[in-house]
Design goal:
The chain has 238 residues and is an alpha+beta fold. The chain has 4 helices and 13 strands.
Amino acid sequence: MKRKFIIIFTLVFTFVISLGNTTSAATPISDPNLRNALSKVRDTGQVIIVKAKPYSRTATVQGFEKINGQWMASFQPIPAVIGKNGIGKTTEGDGKTPVGAYQIGSTFGWAKSPTNMKMPYKQTNKFHYWVDDTTSRDYNKWMYYTGNPYSRWKSFERLNHPLYKYAFVIRFNNQPIVNGKGSAIFFHVWNGPTTYTAGCVAVSEKHVVNILRWLDAKKKPIIVIGDPNLINSSIINY
């Protein structure tokens, strides 16, 4: 009986460890200023915070969730990479990641949906595009098109790109869409911890998958991106 108990315990322990620590048990928030900022947020129960210093190509990502009326840290900070030219996006092609608070849009990827997701997920193929042609009426929109894309747009992204194995849309520049302000801002799989993006936020595949499983459509999740010294004001002003 004792041997059987040890085997079962070992299997359970191994399974828990294998889940990783991206979405470990929620813990109280130690920073009183952050607690205060989150307490003022309305209409959302989940917040992803991306902290990055100006001109840095790296960042940290942490998730927070409102549980029984109290904001808790859902997982500890994880490493991320951002735009080649840091944060502060102002125009298409500037190589910067936008600063501010944004709704989290569609989750997607060319791979099959991760299990146990609480957000709608769209599996992409070669006919799915995101348009970054500033002269097009389709600018900053997800388009499904079976024809020759080069005959329709001057510039576009294929949503079956290798780094978009798993991703979600950061709803930047979409209410309303301003041509030339910036497009195709996603949270996706990185190419490594020493790389950078064209303006997106990227983390390891394991962390993207765990975050996709953590996100809950019913909680209307948002993402907040900014300088660590200014992030709380971005949260309050959402």
